[in-house]
Amino acid sequence: MKARADRGAGAEGSDRSAGHETREPFRSYYGRPIIKEPTWKVPDVPAYLYLGGMAGASSVMGALAQLRGYSRLRRVGLLCAAGGSGASVLALIHDLGRPRRFLNMLRVFKPTSPLSVGSWILAPFSALSGAVAVSELTGFARPLARVVAGFAAVLAPAMTTYTAVLLADTAVPGWHETRRELPFVFAFSSVAAAGALGTGLAPRSEAAPARRMAVIGSLGELLASRVLEQRAGRIAEAYRTGRAGTTLRTARVLAAGCALGALFARRSGSVAVLVAASGTAASAATRYGVFEAGRETARDPYYTVVPQRQDGRSER
Amino acid sequence: MSPDGAAEHPLFGLARAAQPGGDVRTSASGPVDSPAGGNRLSGPLADPSAEAGYSERHPERMGFFTDTSVCIGCKACEVACKEWNLLEEDGLDLTGMSYDNTTELGATTWRHVAFVEQRIDPSTRARVDIGMPGMGAPSTTPEEGADSDATEVRWLMSSDVCKHCTHAACLDVCPTGALIRSEYGTVVVQDDVCNGCGYCVPACPYGVIDIHPDNGGAFKCTLCQDRLGSGLAPACATACPTESIQYGPLDQLRQRAEQRLEQLHEQGMTEARLYGQDPTDGVGGDGAFFLLLDEPEVYGLPPDPVVTTRDLPAMAAHAAIAAATAALTVAACFLGGRR
Hints:
The structure holds two protein chains of two kinds.
Chain A (H helix, E strand, L loop, with lengths): L43 H25 L2 H25 L18 H25 L3 H27 L4 H4 L5 H20 L6 H24 L4 H5 L1 H23 L4 H31 L2 H9 L6
Helix pairs in contact in A: 1-2, 1-4, 1-6, 1-10, 2-3, 2-6, 3-4, 4-6, 6-7, 6-10, 7-9, 9-10
Chain B lengths: L9 H8 L2 H4 L24 H4 L10 E6 L8 H10 L25 E10 L6 E2 L23 E10 L7 H5 L5 E3 L5 E3 L10 H4 L6 E2 L6 E2 L5 H4 L6 H5 L5 E5 H17 L6 E3 L12 E5 L19 H22 L6
């Protein structure tokens, strides 16, 4: 529980550490963090973020494919929705300090807690999606399953963005100060992830909507991420440097590759598989990069002290 | 809890507050403005316990006023807290941070005494860099050596603790209802409910609450909830030999703090300031507030903390629009042909 004062700055040291030449000097307590770094584990929580988003967009894809008569794409969408949301639930439970008490998440409904609201979205969504998937695989009660899939698809869009509010409603500067853009990054990233899986897993003759999702979702993710960094001010440094910067740059290359590949995936099965891989990796890397950027802004007191000092009581 | 108020038993109060009705603090529907007329998610709030659903007979809001100008750094508060609350030893490292080998508040440290060494000019009380090993560029340490009047060493000591915020982010975001508002207006964790999700940890703008590495639950100062009911003061305040830690009804503490501040200013200690006493600040004022002799960040405190739930309606709106965008984007992708 204890960490050494490894930053070495004296209690009175104005921190202007190497590599941060453009930073305003600020005072701190031996360079130690002011807020606590999230105790959420890797890969549990980044996986939870990715899987839930992918499942949400897949559910919408599956339900619309069902409406429009794409039977194979429907199958991919509904199975990905069930698999993704089920795995998301498992990742969340595995991250708990006391996993056996996971049902306490459903003990109350608290509108002030994004995790409570999120649990009340995730639990029915994963249950409905799981039931639909069983019907999809066994053929049991198929007419009923179509209705249930529609219900799941109504909850599904919220699955793509509630996790952004979950991160943003914390004192972590890297997440709270990007609270306006984060839901859009996650929403488009989810559409891209579902589209990429649809492109790779459904027959090419049926995957046209999925390919469009991969293209538009990836481009939207790139655009939203760019807006996020431009509006992030001082926080942008955490998104551009270190492990988060490397991860997010990789995610951008992968997303661009996914979008480009999806344009040509109609003609080649191997390209379609590459689209699925790159889109999945891009979406997962985006979540992990955002997660890591937030952790960095929690570790470094600069991100807490200087914005609070300079922005006063204004809207932060 | 006063005996004549026994109809509202503390445990019943706790149990009821943990129900959905007791926890819901949204301003989304109905006339939910606080008695002070503020938003329930942020801003001044006269009586957090009443807002959480306790009856009018609940006790006064209790708190701490930590006057660091008389703290001698004895750490009796840390020891008394550990002893009373049965908190285990959590490391015996030497940190090189003056006398502070505790380093921070956490799951097993609910009081933490900070030590800061400064060299000052005794006549002007201006602070001069003491030349501690640092990463600062030379330009940030101008006066060292040049200012021969900087002869006095000043030791800043401050006993940090959970702030028991008027608008507590940890309580707001807790998904299980484990974190509740007590009848004393404090914020406490119900260990038998907490499932260790960890959301409270990054939500706290002060970095107070933490997950216990061994048992997985969230822990922090309870203001000695188990002593208050018997009319006892919290262990730390009882142990404090200089009355640096003062415990009492928050209204009285605020008045006392203003008097003390005035007194110090008259004595020429113009650097004295109150921290966390202002009900209009970002967390609606702290139940545990401080008199400091330097900027908050020098003690490891955030200069202007905010309960981020203040922005929850706006964040929910952004998320809803983004979710609708995602749905419409997918729908648009199904409009085209099959190629």
